[in-house]
C-alpha cells in the first residue's frame, strides 16, 4: 500500500489499513499488532468486575467492528481530543475511578472509538451513572445497566488491557502512514544520576564525528543547540513517538534520550528503536512511586530486555554500581554485546579510567580499553568536563559512540580526538566564564547530589570551595537540615538562600536548614534569602583560586514564589554579577 502524505487534519485511516501498510516493517508486523489486539480482547472476556459484575463478555463491541472505523490520529488526553481521533484510555498510577469515568464519557463525544486499558463495564458498574441517565445501580442490575450505558455511548469502546505492550507501535504506524521517514537510531540512558549529561555527550560525540543528532530529556528536547524545555524526563507514549518521528523528518540520524524509571515501568518507550542502552547508577529516589529499591532496579533493568526493545545490540553498564549485576544479568539473558565501564583501575572492564588528573580546566584521563580480543589499548584523553563523576559519564558516552561507530565506521581514535570540543549539559557542572576564580552552576538539589558535586570539585580546588544553595518550599522539610549539613561537610564556605520558596516564607525555610548547626558551622555560613544578592555576594567574596558552586536550579530559568514563576536563570544572574565585579 502506498503511504499517505496528506495533511493530518484531512486524512483518515483504519487500524486495518495500518496493519496492511506496515506489513513490510519489521517493527510493526500486522500479524503482531492484530494478535496483540485479539489476545487482549480475548483476555478481557474473562476479566472480573470488582464486587458487582462477575464477568465481562464484550459482545457489543468486538475487534472486527473497531479495526475498520476511520480515524485521524491517536490521542491520550481527553482534554485535547478532537473529533474522529482514536482515544486511548490509560490507567493512572494513582487510580481514580471518577476521573477515569469522566475521561471516558468526555472522550466518547468526539472519539472515533476508544481503546481502554481499564475495563469499561467495571468502570461504569462500580461507580455513579451520570445524573442525566436516571438509572439506579444495585448489585442485581449493575452489569445490565453498565452494558446499557456502554452501548449508549456515541462511539464504541474496546477493552484492551495490555494496550501498553503495543501502543507505541500503533502510534508510530499511524505517523509512518501519514509520512514515511527513516527513524533515528536510539541510544537510551537510565540511572538515578548522569542521564542528562550522558545523553547530551553521546549526541555531541556523534555529531562531531559526522552523525546528525538530537536529544530528549530533562534539559530539553530537540536538535543540539535548539532544545525546547521538557515537562517530563520521559514523555508519554504519544509525545515520545511524535518526537521520534519529527526528528526523522528533520534528518536526525541519532537520538539520545533519558529513560526514567517511571517511563520504563509505564512502557512509554514501547516501540522505540533502542539500539544501545546505558546504565549509570542507582541511589535512593522515587520511592514514592516504587515500593522499594528492588522494584526501582527492576524497572531500570527493562531497558536491557530485548522482549521490550527488540532492536537492542549493546548494553553499556557501570560496574562500579552495586545494582549493576541486575542489569548485567538482564543484558546477558537477552544475548546483547555487553560492555562495562569503571573508574577503578583494579577492575576488569571494557573501558577503565586508569588514571585521572583534575584541574580547573577539566581533567586528563588515561583510558584503557579491552574488548576481549586479547588487545588492551591505552589512550590519553583531555576532557573539559569538571568532576570525577563526569569521567564516568564520559566513559559511558565514549562507549556508546564506539558501539554506534561499528555501524558508521567511526573508530575510537576519531571519537577521542573530538572530546576537547565537548560541552557539559546546561546546568550540570556548567562553568560560567571568568578571568579568575571558577564559577559553576549545577542542578544538585538533594543532599547526596550536593555531596557528590562538592567532593568532585574539591579535587580541582586550590583555594576555598564555596556553595550557594537553598531548599524548595512546600516540599520535604526533613531534607532541609540534611542539605545544609551536606554543604557544610563538602564546602569551606556556605551561603544559604532561596530556591523556589513557592508559598512558604523563604526565611522559615532557611531557619529549618540551620537546625543542628554548630558554632563553627555558623561561622562558615552566610544567610541571604534573596538569591540574586546571594550570588552577587559570592562573586564579591571569592578569591582568584576559589571555586564557587551555585547549586539547586541548574537548567531552570525561573524562581517560583507564591504560585508565580519569575524569570530567574542562575547562569545569567552569575554572568551579570561577574561582569559587574569586573571579573570577565
Automatic annotation (TrEMBL):
Compartments it resides in: Cytoplasm
Keywords in alphabetical order: ATP-binding, Cell cycle, Cell division, Cell shape, Cell wall biogenesis/degradation, Cytoplasm, Ligase, Magnesium, Nucleotide-binding, Peptidoglycan synthesis
GO biological process: cell division; cell wall organization; peptidoglycan biosynthetic process; regulation of cell shape
Binding site for meso-2,6-diaminopimelate: 475, 499-502, 552, 556
InterPro entries assigned to the protein according to its UniProt record, in alphabetical order: Mur-like_cat_sf, Mur_ligase_C, Mur_ligase_C_dom_sf, Mur_ligase_cen, UDP-N-AcMur-Glu-dNH2Pim_ligase
GO MF annotation terms: ATP binding; magnesium ion binding; UDP-N-acetylmuramoylalanyl-D-glutamate-2,6-diaminopimelate ligase activity
Post-translational events: Carboxylation is probably crucial for Mg(2+) binding and, consequently, for the gamma-phosphate positioning of ATP.
Positions of the Mur ligase C-terminal domain: 427-554
Reaction(s) this enzyme catalyzes, per UniProt: UDP-N-acetyl-alpha-D-muramoyl-L-alanyl-D-glutamate + meso-2,6-diaminopimelate + ATP = UDP-N-acetyl-alpha-D-muramoyl-L-alanyl-gamma-D-glutamyl-meso-2,6-diaminopimelate + ADP + phosphate + H(+)
Pathway where it operates: Cell wall biogenesis; peptidoglycan biosynthesis
Cellular component GO terms, alphabetical: cytoplasm
Domain of life: Bacteria
Cofactor dependency: Mg(2+)
EC number from the UniProt entry: 6.3.2.13
Residues modified to N6-carboxylysine: 300
UniProt cross-references to Gene3D superfamilies, sorted A to Z: Mur ligase, C-terminal domain, Mur-like, catalytic domain
Positions contributing to ATP binding: 191-197
Residues where UDP-N-acetyl-alpha-D-muramoyl-L-alanyl-D-glutamate binds: 76, 78, 233-234, 260, 266, 268
Motif segment (Meso-diaminopimelate recognition motif): 499-502
Domain Mur ligase central residues, every copy: 189-401
Family stated for the protein in its record: Belongs to the MurCDEF family. MurE subfamily.
Function: Catalyzes the addition of meso-diaminopimelic acid to the nucleotide precursor UDP-N-acetylmuramoyl-L-alanyl-D-glutamate (UMAG) in the biosynthesis of bacterial cell-wall peptidoglycan.
This protein's name: UDP-N-acetylmuramoyl-L-alanyl-D-glutamate--2,6-diaminopimelate ligase
Annotated source species: Psychrobacter arcticus (strain DSM 17307 / VKM B-2377 / 273-4)
Gene coding for it: murE
Amino acid at each position: 500500500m502506498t503511504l499517505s502524505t496528506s495533511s493530518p487534519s484531512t486524512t483518515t485511516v483504519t487500524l486495518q489499513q495500518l496493519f496492511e501498510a506496515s506489513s513490510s516493517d519489521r517493527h510493526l508486523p500486522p500479524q503482531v499488532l492484530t494478535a496483540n489486539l485479539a489476545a487482549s480482547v480475548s483476555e478481557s472476556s474473562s476479566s472480573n468486575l470488582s464486587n458487582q459484575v462477575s464477568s465481562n463478555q464484550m459482545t457489543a463491541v468486538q475487534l472486527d467492528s473497531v479495526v475498520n472505523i476511520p480515524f485521524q490520529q491517536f490521542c491520550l488526553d481527553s482534554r485535547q481530543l478532537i473529533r474522529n481521533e482514536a482515544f486511548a484510555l490509560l490507567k493512572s498510577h494513582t487510580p481514580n475511578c471518577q476521573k477515569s469515568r469522566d475521561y471516558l464519557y468526555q472522550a466518547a463525544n468526539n472519539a472515533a472509538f476508544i481503546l481502554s486499558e481499564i475495563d469499561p463495564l467495571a468502570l461504569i458498574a462500580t461507580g455513579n451513572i451520570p445524573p442525566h441517565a436516571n438509572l439506579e445501580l444495585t448489585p442485581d442490575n449493575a452489569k445490565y445497566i453498565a452494558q446499557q450505558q456502554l452501548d449508549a455511548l456515541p462511539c464504541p469502546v474496546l477493552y484492551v488491557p495490555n494496550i501498553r505492550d503495543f501502543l507505541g507501535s500503533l502510534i508510530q504506524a499511524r505517523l509512518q502512514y501519514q509520512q514515511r521517514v527513516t527513524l533515528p537510531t536510539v541510544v537510551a540512558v537510565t540511572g538515578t544520576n548522569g542521564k542528562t549529561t550522558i545523553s547530551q555527550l553521546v549526541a555531541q560525540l556523534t555529531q562531531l564525528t559526522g552523525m546528525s543528532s538530537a536529544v530528549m530529556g530533562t534539559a530539553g528536547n530537540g536538535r543540539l543547540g535548539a532544545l525546547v524545555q521538557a515537562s517530563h524526563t520521559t514523555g508519554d507514549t504519544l509525545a515520545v513517538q511524535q518526537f521520534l518521528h519529527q526528528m526523522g523528518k528533520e534528518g536526525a540520524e541519532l537520538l539520545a534520550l533519558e529513560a526514567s524509571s517511571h517511563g520504563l515501568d509505564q512502557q512509554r518507550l514501547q516501540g522505540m528503536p533502542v539500539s544501545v542502552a546505558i546504565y549509570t547508577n542507582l541511589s535512593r529516589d522515587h520511592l514514592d512511586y516504587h515500593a522499594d529499591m528492588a522494584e526501582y532496579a527492576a524497572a531500570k533493568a527493562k531497558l536491557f530486555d530485548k522482549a521490550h526493545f527488540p532492536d537492542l545490540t549493546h548494553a553499556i553498564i557501570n560496574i562500579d554500581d552495586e545494582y549493576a549485576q541486575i542489569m548485567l544479568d538482564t543484558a546477558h539473558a537477552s544475548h546483547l554485546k555487553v560492555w562495562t565501564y569503571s573508574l577503578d583501575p583494579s577492575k576488569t572492564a571494557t573501558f577503565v579510567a586508569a588514571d585521572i588528573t583534575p584541574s580547573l580546566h577539566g581533567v586528563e584521563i588515561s583510558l584503557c580499553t579491552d574488548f576481549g580480543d586479547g588487545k588492551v589499548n591505552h589512550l590519553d584523553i583531555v576532557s573539559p568536563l569538571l568532576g570525577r563523576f563526569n569521567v564516568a559519564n564520559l566513559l559511558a558516552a565514549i562507549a556508546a559512540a564506539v558501539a554506534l561507530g561499528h555501524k558508521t565506521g567511526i573508530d575510537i581514535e576519531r571519537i577521542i580526538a573530538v572530546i576537547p570540543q565537548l560541552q557539559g549539559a546546561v546546568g550540570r557542572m556548567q562553568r560560567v566564564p571568568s578571568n579568575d576564580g571558577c564559577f559553576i552552576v549545577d542542578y544538585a538539589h538533594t543532599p547526596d547530589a550536593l555531596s557528590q558535586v562538592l567532593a568532585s570539585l574539591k579535587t580541582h580546588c586550590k583555594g576555598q570551595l564555596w556553595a550557594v544553595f537553598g531548599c524548595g518550599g512546600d516540599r520535604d522539610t526533613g531534607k532541609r537540615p540534611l542539605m545544609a549539613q551536606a554543604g557544610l561537610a563538602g564546602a569551606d564556605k556556605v551561603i544559604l538562600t532561596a530556591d523556589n520558596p513557592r508559598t512558604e516564607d523563604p526565611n522559615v525555610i532557611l531557619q529549618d536548614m540551620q537546625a543542628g548547626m554548630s558554632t563553627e558551622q555558623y561561622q562558615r555560613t552566610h544567610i541571604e534569602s534573596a538569591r540574586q544578592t546571594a550570588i552577587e555576594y559570592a562573586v564579591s567574596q571569592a578569591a582568584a583560586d576559589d571555586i564557587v558552586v551555585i547549586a539547586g536550579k541548574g537548567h531552570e530559568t525561573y524562581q517560583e514564589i507564591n504560585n508565580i514563576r519569575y524569570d530567574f536563570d542562575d547562569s545569567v544572574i552569575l554572568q551579570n554579577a561577574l561582569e559587574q565585579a569586573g571579573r570577565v
